[in-house]
Amino acid sequence: MNSIDPSLSSTSISSKTHAAIILQLFLFATALLPIVANGQFSAQFATDERSFAESSQTLQNATRIQRAWTVFGRVLNLGGDPIRAAKVTVDTGVGRPEVLETNLKGEFSTEVTATITQYEAFHVRVVASKEGYMTAQESADFTAKDNATREILVVLREDSENSELLSPAGLVSSLEARFRSPETLSLVPQPSRKDFEKGIEKLFSEGSYLDAVSSLTKSVNKSPGCVDCRLALGLAYLGTNSIVSADRQNVEVDKLTASGKMPRERATLLYIAGVVETWRHEYKNAAGFFLKALDLLPSDSNVLQELGRTLVLQQNWEAADDYLDKAIKAGASREAHLLRARALLEEGDVDGANAEMKTYLGKHPVRSLPMASRMTYLDLQQRLEVKSLSKVKSIVGQPIPELVKAMPELNGLETAASQEPLPSILQKVGENVEKFFRDFSNTVSEEDIRVENLRANGQVGEFQTQKFNYLLLARPEKWGPGLTEYRATPDGRSAQPMESRPGYMRTKGFASASLVFHPSCQGESSFRYLGREKMEGRETYVVAFAQQPEKAKRVGLIIMGETLEPVLVQGVAWVDAESYQIIRMRTDLLKPLQKVRLVRQTTEIQYTEVHFKDKPEAAWLPQVVTVTVQWKGKTFRNSHHYSDFKLFDVATREKRKQASLGPATGTSLN
Fold first, then answer.
1. 323/286 Cα distance (integer angstroms)
2. In a domain, 400, yes or no
3. 476: left (phi over 0), alpha (psi -120 to 50) or beta
4. Per residue in 456-477, pLDDT tens?
5. Of the candidates 241, 219, 47, 217, the residue with the CA atom closest to the CA atom of residue 156
């Protein structure tokens, strides 16, 4: 038997139609009499039932509306900037979903024709995605009475497995105990409780965020004033990366808790808002939200932990340590120990950081950690190894005769009578090095490499030669100046030397060797003025240097499997007595690296003065580099010769300007 269409109760139905309905109902009731009296169906009843169904369908068809809808919107990042070329899927349930692409303003638009009754809703679901971002979605409903649709905004959050931020899943799980508590359940109105409990189960036990949204939406519709229902719904939306929808719920919660009579709920809202601000990289705003939440709930472990994380991201190490210590005492998650290890490490408390890292690791293997956690672990291990080097004696403190014996290059040294000239030498050399990195122009040169495998008697065994284009590109690091070095084949493709012979040792990174004399780096090393020596026809000052383990921040690292060792260096530089340019440099390991069996790595660099056609000032660049390595009982020697220096335009990779050698160098390039 057909049921009565709900639309028939509408006040918009005409009086004639209403009379027809009453008539049908009357006939329906009359037809029941023969059934009761005779115990059988009559033909009249069947006829009347068909008539009623046909009449109902006719009335429903009369209210159907066909309309062309414009579905439009924008895709933005968390900073509110448009995202171009994002893939947008528009699903209205009418035909196949349509796939669009955003324009330069992040906009998308399409026309959809749909037929609905005036009482139905036209549902639109928009899913946006782009490489480098988390896929997000938003939904909207429009009734037949709406003259037009409204703009649908979709916000994409950057996606990075190396992110140090709390993830959406992490945010959801952090609030499970709070939403499952008897206190929370008791505050949910009875009409909404069943849907609320179902939504909570989907949210936390199953991780079915879309199903949770469905159930929690019902709970909110039944009890619009239920604050916990809206908080949970907003949390479920964040789980699906529906940031705009979550924000709408949080706005309503803000209104409902503005009186200050619901401190627990208000603090939860502020906590969620703070996490979202960290996703926007607005750390100052995030810290403000967390501090307001702590005013309401001073011992909330979630808030304390995320405030500590925010302070770590702001590099406010001391304050981060303080709040993370409180978070741990309040019962924060395991991650609080990792965050505190990071803060202690930056404060210089390596032992304290190690204790926190051990607590964080527990029985978890290092290889199972997220990338950001592994990087902190590796940094800590490096610092521990560096700390162990603090008692190593460097060449800075060795007697001159021992240095001359170890370094034949010092045979012509006139020993210094005092260290009085050293500060002036370091200042002037530092100014030149700083200028070199500050004003560096991208260059390309020809590199001839000869890689030799030496026998025990020092004679050359097997060898290989290769030729490359060698690119030096200015790439400032967070801490200051930096260069990135690439090898390329003549046709411009990236290349690595001796790729077919993995037994050979490959070396690079010579142009940055002078950084030890940069003003921002000098405090990490100790220096000693050895004296004067004539080198390559020039009068030079000879300066020994060695990185200080307890102060060095720019430390190399050798990783082999799960074995790692930090690389600190010491060496000697020959500085032109007139120009204060470094014309020769030698570096050695501060100590052999026993774990990876690297006994020796000696790098000898000869610099040359290069002049470019359209650049008035010369640049001092490596011309000849020899690297000798003793590793795993074998000795390798790499020789690098650089010539034909040109400026390199990264944008076009075509504009190259011929360079010529300065006449004062007394050398030529092959």
1. 15
2. yes
3. beta
4. 777 888 888 888 888 888 876 6
5. 241
Q: Is residue 311 part of a domain?
A: no
20: containing domain: 6-62
- The identity of residue 525, as a single letter, is S
Cβ neighbors of 353 (< 8 A, separation 6 or more) are 340, 341, 342, 344, 345, 380, 383
For residues 380 and 356, the answer to whether their CB atoms sit within 8 Å is no
Percent helix / strand / coil, the chain, rounded to 5? 40, 30, 30
Q: How many domains does the chain have?
A: 4
Locate tokens 């720019």: which residue?
554
Question: Is 117 found in the same domain as 31?
Answer: no
Whole-number pLDDT of residue 92: 86
Largest CA distance in the chain: 133
Structural contact between residues 541 and 577, judged by C-beta atoms closer than 8 angstroms = yes
Answer positive or negative: Cα dihedral of 158, 164, 166, 169: positive
Q: What is the pLDDT of residues 541-554, one digit of tens each?
A: 999 999 988 787 77
Number of residues written out for the chain? 670
Secondary structure of 542-598 in HEC code, one letter for each residue: EEEEEECCCCCCCCEEEEECCEEEEECEEEEEEEECCCCCEEEEEEEECCCECCCCE
CA-nearest of 619, 610, 613 to 662 is 610
Query: How many C-beta atoms lie closer than 10 Å to residue 624's C-beta?
Result: 18
**586 shares its domain with 618:** yes
What is the mean predicted confidence (pLDDT) over 143-151? 77
DSSP code of 529? E
Are 175 and 125 in the same domain?
no
Residue 336 lies in a domain: no
My answer on whether 73 and 54 are in the same domain is no
Q: How confident is the model at residue 10 (pLDDT cuts 50, 70, 90)?
A: very low
Alpha-carbon distance of 369 to 377, in angstroms, equals: 9
pLDDT band at 152 (very low <50, low <70, confident <90, very high): very high
Residues 135-159: what's their mean pLDDT? 87
Q: Which of 319, 277, 323, 318 is nearest to 298 (CA)?
A: 323
> Does the residue 378 lie in any domain?
no
Q: What is the mean pLDDT of residues 619-626?
A: 92
Query: Which residues, 6 or more positions from 214, have their beta carbon under 8 angstroms from its beta carbon?
Result: 199
Q: What are phi and psi of 36, to 5 degrees?
A: -70, -40
Q: pLDDT category, 11, cuts 50, 70, 90?
A: very low
Considering the domain architecture, whether residues 483 and 464 belong to the same structural domain is answered as yes
Please identify, among 104, 131, 156, the residue that sits at the C-terminal boundary of a domain.
156
Tell whether 516 and 653 lie within a shared domain: yes
* pLDDT tens digits along 154-166: 999 988 755 789 9
